Amino acid sequence: MKILVSAFEPFGGESINPALEAVALLRDADVVKLTLPVRYAEAAKIICAEIDRLEPDAVISVGQAGGRDAVTPERQAVNERSSAAPDSAGRLCQGEKIDPEGEDRLESTFGAEQIACAINASGLPARVSDSAGTYVCNDVMYSVLAKLKHKKVPAGFIHLPFCTGQATRHPGAFTMEISDMARALEIAVATVKQIIAAQQ
Ligand code: PCA
Rounded to whole angstroms, how far apart are CA atoms 180 and 74? Predict the structure, then answer.
């Protein structure tokens, strides 16, 4: 089995992206890791090319959503690029569509609810999120879900809070240890594997 797990480079002036750090700690032999740039369209193009090459059984993308107080599997992606901040290439998008002919929103197919429940059951904080934002993470999530729409390949996105190493830059913000985030992602991978097994 091959589970493609992507993470993003640091962005927005941070030297760490907890997603990248936590994915690096995953030890599951079925996991194939991919690092993406925080760039509209380009990140989506890279992961879609990797899906063509690898033909994975599932795709889990991971990113940072600083300010959240839990690990948050995303329920849906929207067909929009919009942010006050430009991407890492300096591209600013304010209200453009990812795919002018695409659907307004696409639901994740990797069992967001089951993943959140399983992580919670382990004692780590998790809850389903209804918004992946409209920045590069949403761009990747929407593009992957559109690509896999008619395929039986579970896919979705998980946002992580700031990690403890980012605490000094964000006083008062909720933080988690990278090792706990990695444990949460391991549970997510195991849950997705169970979903695949149940489909067969
Ligand atoms: N988080 C950003 C982009 C990269 C990342 O890790 C987002 O939520 O869109």
Answer: 19
Query: Going by CATH, does the domain composed of 3-199 fall within 3.40.630.20?
Result: yes
Instruction: Give the burial class of 81: count Cβ atoms within 10 A of its Cβ; 0-12 exposed, 13-18 middle, 19 or more buried.
Output: buried
Q: Which of 5, 11, 98 to mutate to test the pocket of ligand 1 (most atoms within 8 A of CB)?
A: 11
> What is the distance in A from the centroid of ligand 1 to the CA of 122?
25
Q: Would the CB of 137 count as within 6 Å of ligand 1?
A: yes
Active site residues: 74, 137, 159
pLDDT tens by residue, the chain, 200 residues: 999 999 999 999 999 999 999 999 999 999 999 999 999 999 999 999 999 999 999 999 999 999 999 999 999 999 999 999 999 999 999 999 999 999 999 999 999 999 999 999 999 999 999 999 999 999 999 999 999 999 999 999 999 999 999 999 999 999 999 999 999 999 999 999 999 999 88
Nearest-5° Cα angle at 135, 85 to 42: 100
Q: For the chain, which residues make up each domain, given as ranges?
A: 3-199
Name the residue with the closest Cα to ligand 1, atom 7.
Answer: 137
Nearest ligand 1 atom, CA 138: 9
